[in-house]
């Protein structure tokens, strides 16, 4: 049974981005929360700034939070300032600096914060990796079968490792780790939503992975409850059920373009050739192997069940209906991109042999 308690001061990192701004705004509107302070070196957009009227903004990053947490007498820290893709932060080096080093320094500040009693951290199901050795369903106790190739997944493993050390040093602090499945929904704007929003969707030939999604509104609800209720532990957060990649593409009314050889490299080239944006190894491995997690622990502990993967994806479709139409030019570009990708992969293979 969840224990509800008032929280006098909550600090939220990453409020210049959608998730952080939404969480901070919800907490500021909750009478159980006294004061909400956002830490972010960047200013939120005008649209997000409207949400943050009752949220104090201190322009520092998580790595510089040491003196701030002590001065604020923070009781709860919600760490959302993680970068999921290199282009969001100016490259892989900057991404790792933000995710790993920033989190390590924030935890050091939390360790020295005398009034801190709760820490809520965003994590990801990417922590389990994605490979041909995966089990059908991951539980919170499942270890990755091999080290993930993607930068974000490796960052998540490092971040959770630092948090385990923090728990040993500060057993008096209730620490909640939320491993979110990929976000989707009518308002979500992520690599995944941009992938499915395109008229022609690149896939890897012969692969039809099982995918699980989380509606972004359900992620916000779980984050909110994690602050105003006590839920220590690590939790998978995802919608029940699965969609295969081919089912998702058909539901979205898109056209799948399978890459014939050899999967990952050609798919990455295809994505660039069609101007879909950059896809990292985290996304490419997901689209090859898929990933499904068990959410029993979340449902039992929180008394809350996110909407299903299918319902979350349908909301995404409604939000993007009619935005893209497949034209002969799209198909011609896809065909050319496939041929170019195959040529480049063959050329690279010949050079390395």
Automatic annotation (TrEMBL):
Residues in NAD-dependent epimerase/dehydratase domain copies: 10-238
Residues in coiled coil: none
Matches recorded under Pfam families: Epimerase (PF01370)
Organism superkingdom: Bacteria
Name listed for the protein in its UniProt record: NAD-dependent epimerase/dehydratase domain-containing protein
Source organism of this protein record: Phytohabitans aurantiacus
Taxonomic placement: Bacteria, Bacillati, Actinomycetota, Actinomycetes, Micromonosporales
